[in-house]
Each structure stands twice: as structure tokens, then as C-alpha cells.
Amino acid sequence: MRLRVLLFLLSGLLAGALGALLAVAGNGGRPSVRQELARAEQQWSARLAPSYRIVIQQQTRAGVCEQDLEVRDERVRTVYRNQCNQPPIWTVSRLFGWVEQLERPASVCYPSAGQCTCRVSARARVTFDPQLGYPRHISYEWGLRPHWENPHYWQALLLDDDLARCANRARGGGTVEVSVVSLTFLP
To answer: Is the pTM of this model over 0.90?
Structure first.
């Protein structure tokens, strides 16, 4: 029994190390989201477009909704449609701000900072408009992952504690997608 547990622990450590190596090598020389974001913001600001109409589609666990907004000087001036259960705040500058915020590393522990059995992991994917630079599609996924480096994870695993099953936890996890359906410049 002890040998089986030891082999299981070693295989977990090897899998974690292999995953980290693949994540580092997986970029393939492509620019980081941070680099793409800086280029896209420069591209957008060069357009001098203080007025536009933007249609945003959001997809969450609650479903899909749309907002159709008129923006002048990066402030929402007219709301043509708001099917979402939230204030109509999306402007191009707010989309850029959200992408920047999503790129900050998450270091949240679960169930608590004192017993960091699981770690909240997050991943953002962004597609920028090739001509204008604004974020055309943002996908944000988050969930709970085992915190391999923390002894509380291994203790919970050895005790067959439910806390070690981070990915199966009912709390934490989901996807939010925000897409620009259309963007039209106004006079």
C-alpha cells in the first residue's frame, strides 16, 4: 500500500514537472498576449476614432446576451439594446483594460491561504482585429488545480481527503467570452 502511494506521489511530481516544461516550450516563438496587447493598443490609438457604435456579445454560465452601445470619447452615451444583467460599460478602452487585468497572474489559494491545497488557475485567449487593433474576442477560463508544491495537497491526497480533488470541486470554474459583433465609426 505504501509503495503504491509513493509511486502515485512520484508520478504526480513527474507529471507536474513535465507539464511545466511543455507550457514553457509551447509558446513556439509567438508574441505573448502582453506584446500583442501593446501593439494592438498602439494600432487602435492611431485611428483617432472618438465616436463609434459597438455591439458586444457575452457568453457565460447564465447564457448569451448582447449590448448595442454608442460610445463617444470612450464613454457610453446611448444604449440601443442591453440584454445583459449588468451595466452597459463596454468600450474599446475597457476591453483593453480587461485584457490587461486578465494577464496578471492569479495566486489565489483554495480553500484558504493557510491551507493552499488547490490553486486557482486562469487562462485568457484574445484575438485582436487585424485592421483596427481592438480586442475582437476575449475568452477567459478559470478553475481549481492541484497545488503540487504545497504540502497540504499531498497531505490531503494521502488522507484521501476530498480537498485533493481540485478539478472536481463544485466551486470555482467557468468560462466568460466577450466578442465584438460589430464596430462602426460615427461622425
So the answer is: no
